[in-house]
Design a protein that fits this description.
about 150 residues; alpha/beta; Oxidized Rhodanese, domain 1; about 35% helix
Length: about 150
Amino acid sequence: MNSSFPLTLVACAALLVACAGGSTAPSATDGRPQVQEISILKLDSLQAALPNAILIDVRSDEEWAAGHLAGASYISFDWDHRLDPLKALPEDRPVLVYCEAGGRSGVITEELRILGHPYIVDLIGGMEAWSENDRPVAFDEPVALP
């Protein structure tokens, strides 16, 4: 694992947060990683800074079919089937999570934090903000999870 990677993620996230007027979640008191919250409208900049990041849509099957972000993987929010794919995500790559408006991505990013994943970004605003800003929507198959 690249030892400068955590510093790069923190610096990138801090810069994007400062420029976007966003916020970060408070520091965890249990020693687990912190979730960065960054506007989904900063996705292009974030992906340029973190080209190996895993982009995950956590909405319903119907929402996915109605359009999603290009290059996204898909993990249904379904309680019974999401824990195994979350546990299997590689810890040496940042995970960018979005949903429709922000509630479900917040739940998933907190689950990833509790699982100990070190690099988590909640793309706040979700597809709702993305669509309201006339950003492009894809209809292809999900990218396979690593």
